[in-house]
Amino acid sequence: MGIDFSLYVITDERFLNISNIAESVEKAILGGATIIQYRAKKKNTKEMYEEALVVREITKRYNIPFIVNDRLDLALAVKADGVHVGQEDLPVNAIKAIVGNDFIVGLSTHNLNQVKRANEEMLADYIGFGPVFPTTTKENPDPVTGTDLLCKAVRISKIPVVATGGINEKNVDDVLKCKPAGVAVVRAAFEKGDPYKNVLKLKRKAKELNWKKL
């Protein structure tokens, strides 16, 4: 598909709402985000729909792929470019049967067995792998993988790997050494300060390490 996963920015409902999500996402894109995922777990469906519509318009304006977390129905309702699912969500083969191959489907993986299974199925367009570091964005996170396991996952995966979980400006260097297709950030983009400057710092880090053509 030729998708640039390098700076994969995920929204966070703790810091974003209908009043600031458009401005924050736009700043993240201007700072260098190459793909945006809308993620909310505690909001009702109407709130999520309204916010996702706003994000869809921003991403469309900048021609940035837009992914919705978990909810295929919401992704289809707002005409997103894809959906990202976990191990216990609707299976990738079922999603592909509904939406076809032009719709991006990402799959979360947390260990090498899950990576190998994704390889066997060869249905996901990319896999998220982690959490690489401790994270507070999930109430019951999977065990921390660390960078050693991430590097192994990147080596064995036949599918683009996006590193995820607790990644920020201070530890991204170690993540990039594994040469994943991308790094996913949440708090590093939106928790404090200006999303434009936050994402730009990550982009500059990548350039310093000659990682990707950012």
TrEMBL record:
The lineage of its organism: Bacteria, Pseudomonadati, Aquificota, Aquificia, Desulfurobacteriales. Its cofactor is Mg(2+). Its EC number is 2.5.1.3. Signal peptide: none annotated. It catalyses: 2-[(2R,5Z)-2-carboxy-4-methylthiazol-5(2H)-ylidene]ethyl phosphate + 4-amino-2-methyl-5-(diphosphooxymethyl)pyrimidine + 2 H(+) = thiamine phosphate + CO2 + diphosphate; 2-(2-carboxy-4-methylthiazol-5-yl)ethyl phosphate + 4-amino-2-methyl-5-(diphosphooxymethyl)pyrimidine + 2 H(+) = thiamine phosphate + CO2 + diphosphate; 4-methyl-5-(2-phosphooxyethyl)-thiazole + 4-amino-2-methyl-5-(diphosphooxymethyl)pyrimidine + H(+) = thiamine phosphate + diphosphate. Residues 7-188 form the Thiamine phosphate synthase/TenI domain. Condenses 4-methyl-5-(beta-hydroxyethyl)thiazole monophosphate (THZ-P) and 2-methyl-4-amino-5-hydroxymethyl pyrimidine pyrophosphate (HMP-PP) to form thiamine monophosphate (TMP). One of its GO terms (biological process) is thiamine diphosphate biosynthetic process. Mg(2+) binds at D70, D89. InterPro entries: Aldolase_TIM, ThiamineP_synth_sf, ThiamineP_synth_TenI, TMP_synthase. 2-[(2R,5Z)-2-carboxy-4-methylthiazol-5(2H)-ylidene]ethyl phosphate binds at T135, T136, T137, G166. NCBIfam families: thiE. 4-amino-2-methyl-5-(diphosphooxymethyl)pyrimidine binds at Q37, Y38, R39, A40, K41, N69, S108, K138. Belongs to the thiamine-phosphate synthase family. Keywords: Magnesium, Metal-binding, Thiamine biosynthesis, Transferase. It comes from Desulfurobacterium thermolithotrophum (strain DSM 11699 / BSA). Pfam families: TMP-TENI. One of its GO terms (cellular component) is cytoplasm. HAMAP family: TMP_synthase. Pathway: Cofactor biosynthesis; thiamine diphosphate biosynthesis; thiamine phosphate from 4-amino-2-methyl-5-diphosphomethylpyrimidine and 4-methyl-5-(2-phosphoethyl)-thiazole: step 1/1. This is Thiamine-phosphate synthase. GO terms for molecular function: magnesium ion binding; thiamine-phosphate diphosphorylase activity.
